[in-house]
Amino acid sequence: MLIASQLEPTYARTVYPCFDEPAMKATFNIRIVHDPSYVALSNMPAIDISDMKDENGSLWTVTTFNTSLKMSTYLTAFVICDFNYVTRTERGNEIRIWARKEAVKNGYVDYALNITGPIFSFLEDLLNVSYPLPKTDLVALPDFGAGAMENWGLMTFQESSLMYLPGDKFTSRKAMIAIIVSHELGHQACEMLRRFFFLFKWFGNLVTMNWWNDLWLNEGLASYFEYLGATFVEPKLSLDTIFYDHVVQPVLREDNEIGVRSLSESEDKIKGSFSLMSLFDSITYNKGASITWMLSGFLTQKLFIRALTSYLKEFSFSNANQDDLWTHIQMVVDAQDEVQLPASVKQIMDSWTCQNGFPVLTLNLSTGTISQEQFLNKKNENSTDSYNNTWIIPILWMKNGSSQPLMWLDKSSKVFPEMQVSESEYDWILLNVNLSGYYRVNYDQLNLKRLAHLLENDPKVIPTVSRFQLIDDVFALTQFGYIQIETALELTKYLAKEDELFIWNVVLLNLVPENLESTLKNYEVYPLLKKYLLKRMLPIYHYYAGFIHQNVDALEDDYFAQVYLEKLFATACWLGLEDCLNLSSELYAKWMDNPEYKIPFLIRRTVCCYGVAVGSDKEWNFAWEMYNHTDSTKEDKDILLSAMGCAKDSWLLHRYLQYGLSDTLFSSNCTSVIILYVVTKDIGHRIAWEFVTENW
C-alpha cells in the first residue's frame, strides 16, 4: 500500500478545511495516525513518534511533525509508505531520497542523490538566498499523475524521473533527471529532461503568485533555471541547444493557433472561461521559459539574477504578481548604464506576456526595412482578421558572419540603414541569432538565396542553433502561406553537409510525416522524397551506422543520438536504404541466435520492426516468444507489440489481430494497441479495417 498527496492547484480543501488560495499563507501543524509497519512523511521533520490503541485494541503509530514555515495550502503534503531511503547532508540540509526497497538496494536513486545537494547549493549561491528548511525528502512514486511536484520539503516524482539505472549507459536519462530535479528545487527558492527540473522550484514556494493567472511566474522561471542548474551538474551537455529543441521550438508550433491564451490572463477571464488545470500547459512552462530566456538575454544574466535576488528578498513568505517582478528589474536597470532599453521593462514585457501569440519579422534587404505582424495561418480565413498587436522586439543579428550590436523594433516597421545590403552579392544578414528572441523571421528572396548559397558552401558559418531555426522557420512560413514550399526546399539542398542530428530531426519532422505509411499512398511524392532525402542522408547515416557496427557505447555522451537516432534510422529503412534493411536483419538475427544479446537500445524499435518486416514467420514467431517472456520490461513489450505489426505477410497480420482478441494471450487493453500498430502500416491498413468491421 502507498498513499501520496497532490494538492496543487485546489485539492487541499478536500483534505482539510481551509481557505485554499495561494495568497493565503499560514503555518501548518501536521500529525498522521498510521499503520506501525509504515513510515509517514510530511513537509517538516518528524518531532515525535508514539503509539496509540484504537477502540478495538489495534495498535497505531502517531507521527507528529514540526510546525511548517508560512506557506500556501497547495504545498502541504504527506506520503505514507514502506520505502527505504538514501541520505546525505548538504550545508546542514538533510536530503533523503525515498523509493521502493529493491530500487534503493540496486542503486537506482544514487544519481539523484549525488546531484540534488549540488543543485541546491548552486541555486543558493546564484540567487543569494538560503534554503529555509532543515530537510528535503524526494520520493519516487510508482504511479503518479503529475511529472513531479515541488511540495516544500517533500517533493514527489514519477519513478522514471528520479531513477537512473546504473547499467543505463545513456545520458539522455541523466540529462532528464538533472533538469527535473533542478526545476523542483528552483521552485523551492524533454520524456526525462523535463522531470528533474523540479529541484528548482523552491523559489516558487518562497514567493508564490498572487493567484493562478500568474502561474507562469512560478513555472516559467523554474523552467528557465532548470537549464542553468542542469548545465552546472552535467557540463558536458549542450543545454542551450537542448533548450531550443525541447522548449522554444515546440511551443512556437503551438502558440499560433486561434484561441491560444496569452501567458498572463486577467483573473476574471480565467475564472470565467478557463479551468485552472488547463493553465498547467506548454504556454505556462515553455513560453514562460522562452520569454524568461529572452529577457535574461537582453538584460544580461548578471542584471537578471541581481533583479531576481532583490525580488526574492522583498517577497519571501508572501505573494507577488508579474508587475512586482518588472518593478525590481526596472530598479536594477535604472541603477546602471551598460544596458539601455527602448522602453520601460513593463512595456516591453507586457507586450510578450499580455498578448497572445508572437510576431514574425520580415526583412527587406534593398530598403533595410524590418516589419512585424502577428504570426497567423494565412490559409485560414478566420485568422486574417487584422490583429493590430505589436511587440517590442530585441533583435540579435549577424552580418556576414560577425555579430552586431543588439537592435530594437518597437513599432510595426522601421528602417535599419545598416541592413541595407542588397547591392553587394556577398553580403548576408541573419536575424534573431541563436533563437534569442521568441519570434520567427521571414527574409526576402534575395537574402534567402544568399543564405542557401552560403549553406551549400560552408554550413558552419551559420551557428548551429541558427541553422536549426532557419529550417524550422521556412517550413512554418510555408505551412502558414507566407512563402512557397520551393523556397523552403532551397534551404535543404545543403543537407549532405549537415552533421547535427537535432537539425536533421527538424528536417524530418517537416518533410516526413509522423504516419509514414500515409505518404506511400501519395505515389507521386514518395519516389521524389526518396531520391532527394536518401542522397543527403547518407553521410550522417553512415557516420552513426559505424558506431552501431563497431562501438555503440561511444555514443554514451551524444545526447541527441539518444533522442533522435531512431528517427533517422527509421526514415532510412522506410525509404528503402539497403544498408539500413540489412543492418536490421543482421542485428535481429543475432538476437534470435542468442536471446541474451541486446540490440542497441538507440535503434531497437527500428531493428525489431524491419527484422520482422524483411523476415518470415520465423522472425515473427521469435518476437512473439520474446514478448511472452516474463522478464521483458514494459518498454520492451511495447517495442515488440509494434514490431509484430510490421510483418509483410497478410496472414501473419490476420493471425496477430486474432491473437489480440484473445483474453488468454493479452490483457484486454492490448486489443486497441495491436489494431493501431497494424492499421498504421501500409499493408495492414485494409486488413485492420476488415478485422474491425467483422469483429465489431
Automatic annotation (TrEMBL):
The cofactors required by this protein are:
Zn(2+)
Where along the sequence does the record put site: Transition state stabilizer?
285
Residues covered by the Peptidase M1 membrane alanine aminopeptidase domain:
111-352
Q: Where in the cell is it found?
A: Membrane
Give the GO cellular component terms, alphabetically. Answer: cytoplasm; extracellular space; membrane
- GO process terms (BP): peptide catabolic process; proteolysis
- Active site (UniProt): 184 (proton acceptor)
The principal localisation class reads: membrane
Keywords (A to Z) from UniProt = Aminopeptidase, Glycoprotein, Hydrolase, Membrane, Metal-binding, Metalloprotease, Protease, Signal-anchor, Transmembrane, Transmembrane helix, Zinc
Q: Tell me which residues make up the Aminopeptidase N-like N-terminal domain.
A: 2-75
What GO annotations for molecular function exist for this entry?
A: metalloaminopeptidase activity; peptide binding; zinc ion binding
Task: List the CDD domains.
Answer: M1_APN-Q_like
Return the InterPro entries for the record: Aminopeptidase_N-like_N (IPR045357), Aminopeptidase_N-like_N_sf (IPR042097), ERAP1-like_C_dom (IPR024571), M1_APN-typ (IPR034016), Peptidase_M1 (IPR001930), Peptidase_M1_aminopeptidases (IPR050344), Peptidase_M1_dom (IPR014782), Peptidase_M4/M1_CTD_sf (IPR027268)
**Topology with regard to the membrane?**
Single-pass type II membrane protein
Asked whether the keyword Repeat is assigned, the reply is no
Instruction: Give the record's cofactor note, including how many are bound.
Output: Binds 1 zinc ion per subunit.
| UniProt KW Endoplasmic reticulum keyword | no
Q: Name one Pfam family in it.
A: ERAP1_C
Sequence ranges assigned to domain ERAP1-like C-terminal in this UniProt record: 428-696
Where Zn(2+) is bound, by residue? 183, 187, 219
The record's similarity note reads: Belongs to the peptidase M1 family.
Q: Tell me the protein's name.
A: Aminopeptidase Q
Q: Which organism is it from?
A: Phalacrocorax carbo (Great cormorant)
